[in-house]
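Q: Could you fold this chain for me?
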Amino acid sequence: MNPKLPYVLLVGAAAIIFILSCMLLSRGGRSPSCGSQPSVVENTGSMSQSLVFADLTPEEMSQVVRYLQGHLGVPLVDASRAKPSDNCIASVDVQVPAKAEVLRFLDGGGARPPREALAVLYFGKQAEPNITEYVVGPLPTPAYHRDVTVQKYGGKVPYHRRPTLAVEYKQIGGFLKSQVFPSAPAFMQQVMEYDGANLAVVTAAPRGFQSGDRVTWFVVFQNVSGFFVHPVGLEVLVDHSSLDISQWAVSRVFYNGQYYRDMAQLESAYVQGRVSVEKVRKAPWDGDFSSMKPRAPPAALFPVQFEPQGPRYSVRKNQVLFQGWSFAFGMSVSTGLRLFDIRHKGERVAYEISVQEALSVYGSNCPAGMSTRYMDGSFGLGRYTSPLVPGVDCPYLATYVDTHAVSDSLRPKKRKASVCIFEHNLGSPLRRHYSNLQSLYYGGLVNSALVIRSIATVGNYDYVWDFIFYQNGALEGKVQATGYPSSSFLHGDGLRYGNRLWEHTLGTIHTHFVNYKVDLDVGGVKNSLVAHDMAFEMTRAPWSPEQQIERPRLTKKVLDTEDQAAFRLQSKMPRYIYFAANSKNKWGHQRGYRIQITSFAGDHIPEASSMERAISWARYQLAVTRRKEEEPTSTSIYNQNDPWTPTVAFADFINNETITNEDLVAWITAGFLHIPHSEDIPNTVTVGNSVGFLLRPYNYYDLDPSIYSHDGVFFTSEQDFTACEINPLACLPKTASCLPNFPPFTYDGFRNM
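A: Sure. Below is the predicted structure, expressed as structure tokens.
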């Protein structure tokens, strides 16, 4: 052996160690943490001004409750413990001031409108039980209250119309457990294997067939994870119209296709062997097929979005600023997420954009399913706004905002992280062009938009509510539906009403309709509604008169009245319809904002139906009316439990008034049909279940405002496109090579349930 060989090997090994060490130091060292730079945000409004729209603070809510307790002269029971025969505060929300007052304050240097609350009270302990609405103010130290019920609704609101409190459902559950189920002991033990805790019930609505009814079908399910798709075949019709709980009674019972007078009759028939029994296999606690627990182990992490130089938007209390956009936001107990004073480039384009209602109409051969028409505003799209999970419901590094509510309780409840705000790179260009003719260049702009989101979980369904702000001045309102499909017990001709999802589970056919209020103020408060479209005209070719050309031409029409501006669901609507300002752009065109609807809605319900007027907003894909303070919403929370005599009927808003050069509101309806299918197990995905609308500038600007975006990219064939000063994308290895600061994962969605 060569004596020099060990030394050679040692030197070689040392060299390899040195090289590897250098590689580890250069490659394996931690990248710097992502820093931040001053946000490029235009100052387009005052935060203090936006507070005129702000939700009530917990302190203000508590002040209102204390004031009402001390000034109404009647005892108020906490709504979480109230019997139907008690007086209680059902909800407290902000009372948004009249638009004229707000605009005097925002634009005219007028006084700030007094801050007030709207309180909804149930007076069950009165000679004539009723629902009363009070405006309470001024906040933060209330000194007055006024009854606005008659002013708003033309009369007192009957007590039977009250939305059902959580405690009433609890009381009905106790009634079923203590009185109803024990009256059929053999059936409940042998068929349902009932142990006092293994069954859950879900309400149908509305509650009966005529005004004054409060008679509700309750569907019985196995009490497991995802119980909505575990029906057991039993449904019970409960008459809970009496204010005396001891007088509640069962009106009818349904089991596996057969109707019975009550549970005692079902028990008798069962004991005599006259009941066709379909015993459902007992599901494990996790629900088995309905479990949302992943069936695969974790693998490579999904892509994560981050901001290498910090957020480019700002959130200050209830105001958001982003790339020329500014707006105020809030959360209504009944209708959920809403926006006010929406401005682009400092100019107001909309005063209010808000959700009004979410409607579902079901079909089935079971009684609850066939009679269900859910109006989710009555249950509370804001009340049931759920805490958001970072990384799934919203990007992990989004800004999360808590909201508060007084609902079903005397104490304000915090809804932790119930709104999220984030900038979203959609992964596609907002606009681009690659030129390979004449000059050679590339120009483009990434489509990065701001999103504000909330998610309402109303029973089985989860609604993802988005408002999206684009750099070209467009604004989108969108809702995506997910959650569990509602189901019936599969029997008889059930497949006429849906698809079989599991052994005994019928996924019932249903519709989704969503209504929005869009109060556009384009170039000022006074607007007109204009329709543009296309028609073919036949002409002779000037250079060859013997030849005919069919050429498209522009059609124009001003829609003068509310009747002309009410477009039924199945009617043909002009493809370009826009709010026109009383000003023109550089090219002589009326400045406008166009309404573009994305919807797959069919019929909402036959107009001959006795309850159709309660949801008559759903007749129209678009209806434009004069704005009136006495027409603030297209529906009412009281319509659900008395649709036969609706407290608010939107059809009455349309009375052929002139809408030229007036303050106008667009009421937009979007919807889709859902026929649940096997892929809705374990639950429904958002893909394909999304509808909404766009508001797009139409000759509003002299050119696309996004050309002034800081995100633009442009380079020619003659430039060094690898240089940062020419092409900002060339800087990404430097500007984006950082580690985002991901805070520890937290979630408060299971606290204080």
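A (continued): The CA atoms of residues 86 and 419 lie 34 Å apart.
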